[in-house]
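Researcher: I'd like a candidate sequence for this fold, 263 residues long. If you have to choose between options at a position, lean toward the conservative one.
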């Protein structure tokens, strides 16, 4: 079997609403060569169906089964560990569709978990404080973070992502978050399980030196860094060593074929 691939999306296949040159060709190459792959993203602001449609707009064909997001990983974990219990969601309205199989708690009901995603501009004091109050209820619910990305590259510059808000809640409620996205090892292990391969037979391609590269390598995967998205030259000076550094994801197929060949 070919070495499997995990592709990050934002900053690798598209950036600021535009496709990165050659990205669609890379997706087609992986599909046409039957290389096991997943698009692995920390996006919690939209469901997989919206990501499929967005990628199609860039000429990239895929389906929901080839996309792993923190909400999907969180639902899998909750179904395995708290199937009959209720949750509180702090995610955008359209992302709630991913949690349709779970029941949300009403005022005063016991909670299994408080789930925190990327609310973006919808965060305010009242919303953050409500999440804190729920975390302080008894019995104490788990704090589930849909990723721990610190920031991302938006069309107007760098923007805070979910991690700063999770850390504020974690500190205030004295609760260690259960992370369901990059760079957590559990997220990478879930991807490896879906691909049904050993970790050393998987390579991650991303633009985030910590979430994509360090996170993947700590989980036993290989990792390739691309110089797009949130990449900064200073990333190469912090002691994390990618297995390769490429200018664009379009350069990845040639690197893959040189290093792994094609079965």
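Model: Candidate sequence:
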């Amino acid at each position: 079997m070919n070495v499997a691939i995990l592709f990050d999306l934002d900053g690798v296949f598209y950036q600021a609403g535009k496709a990165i040159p050659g990205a669609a060709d890379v997706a087609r190459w992986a599909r046409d060569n039957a290389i096991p792959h997943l698009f692995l993203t920390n996006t919690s602001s939209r469901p997989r169906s919206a990501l499929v449609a967005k990628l199609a707009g860039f000429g990239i064909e895929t389906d929901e089964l080839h996309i792993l997001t923190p909400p999907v990983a969180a639902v899998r974990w909750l179904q395995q560990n708290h199937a009959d219990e209720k949750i509180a969601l702090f995610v955008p309205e359209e992302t709630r569709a991913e949690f349709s199989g779970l029941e949300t708690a009403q005022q005063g009901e016991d909670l299994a978990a408080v789930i925190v995603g990327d609310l973006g501009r919808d965060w305010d004091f009242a919303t953050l404080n409500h999440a804190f109050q729920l975390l302080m209820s008894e019995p104490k619910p788990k704090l589930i973070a849909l990723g721990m990305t610190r920031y991302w590259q938006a069309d107007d510059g760098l923007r805070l992502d979910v991690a700063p808000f999770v850390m504020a809640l974690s500190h205030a409620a004295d609760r260690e978050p259960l992370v369901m996205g990059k760079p957590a090892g559990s997220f990478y292990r879930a991807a490896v399980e879906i691909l049904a391969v050993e970790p050393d037979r998987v390579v991650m391609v991303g633009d985030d030196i910590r979430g994509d590269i360090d996170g993947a390598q700590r989980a036993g995967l290989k990792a390739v860094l691309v110089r797009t998205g949130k990449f900064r030259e200073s990333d190469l000076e912090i002691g994390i060593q990618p297995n390769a550094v490429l200018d664009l994801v379009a350069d990845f197929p040639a690197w893959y074929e040189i290093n792994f060949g094609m079965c």
